[in-house]
Amino acid sequence: MDALIGLGLTAILLIATFIIGQKGERDHFEDLRRREARLRVMPVTTFETLPTGWEPTGSGIVTGSVVMSADYFKRFVAGFRKFFGGRLTMYEPLLDRARREAVVRMLEDAQKKGFDAVINVRIEGSRINRSGTEKDGVVAVEMLAYGTGIKRARKPVTPGTPKAA
Amino acid sequence: MPPVVRPSATITLTNTETIPGKEIVQFFGLVSGNTVRAKHAGRDFMAGLKNIVGGELKGYTELLTESREEATARMVEQARLMGANAIVNVRFATSSIAQGAAELFAYGTAVRVE
User: How many Å separate Cα B8 from the centre of its chain?
Assistant: First the structure.
């Protein structure tokens, strides 16, 4: 009887976390798409040099980070999947979401600080341990995105244009 | 040691090897700052709940952001004492030293630019 109740509770938990997790994921991707579209005006590169023709007037570091975890359902399914090996598709959206969120936050930080572009972007991930044991199976990742924000002169001086006295 | 606050001297940080549009005139060498933080029980409990449904663990995001800011502030302080006005090639590192505790580390090269 006890075993049956236990099984029932696990089933309810699995169904509930599947529904909530899926909704959370969908909403987050929707939100990311919106914010990314808004930030597309800002040039972002992973190399150290400036876009051609830019005259920088200021620079500074910009960062964005997020800690995210997978839901109970995904961890449960992944637990089975790990036995057979292969692609863990259930974890792919988690890392994708976290990474994109970190980059979006970095760009929002750049915007807040008044920068016009971000160069030399680096993205790093690290695992977060919860203060339980390993077999808790907690999958939480921290993603950090950072780069150098560049400010440029509001009115770029085009060569050959005479300056107003 | 109480922190020396000199708001007039602002330090520019970049993760590139130079400061775009400026010239490095003097190198002071490596500067770094670290901090070790542990999560408190309340945050850990909330994160435990959130962990069931998945998604962002806001408490942890805040904790790590605060810690990274503190590590950066210590690095900036070191550079300031050396007489630098910028830190170039800044890198961040995270290492988990014990269960529920993490070290946040920031390092870079202190320079004087003009």
Answer: 20
The three-state secondary structure class of A63 is strand
Residue type, A95: L
* B2 φψ region: left (φ > 0), alpha (ψ -120 to 50), beta (else): beta
CA distance A48 to A119: 6
Pairwise CA distance, residues A34 & A28, whole Å: 10
Q: Which two tokens stand for residue B6?
A: 């000199």
Chain-centroid distance, C-alpha A111: 17
Best of A61, A95, A108, A143 to substitute, by most chain B Cβ atoms within 10 angstroms, is A61
ipTM associated with this complex:
0.84
pLDDT at B8: 43
Residue type, A43: P
Q: Give the side-chain half-sphere CA count within 13 A for B75.
A: 32
Q: Cα separation of A118 and A76, whole Å? A: 39
Chain B residues with beta carbon closer than 8 angstroms to that of A20: 53-54
Distance separating alpha carbons of residues B85 and B110, to the nearest angstrom: 8
d(C-alpha B61, C-alpha B43), whole Å: 11
Structure tokens at A55: 């005259």
| Cross-chain residue pair B92–A146, CB shorter than 8 Å | yes
Confidence of residue B42 (pLDDT cuts 50, 70, 90): low
φ, ψ (nearest 5 deg) of residue A56: -70, 140
pLDDT one-digit tens code per residue, A29-49: 999 999 999 999 999 999 988
Count of other CB atoms within 10 angstroms of residue A113: 13
Question: How far apart, in whole angstroms, are the C-alpha atoms of residue B13 and residue B17?
Answer: 11
Strands B86-98 and B12-13 turn out to be parallel
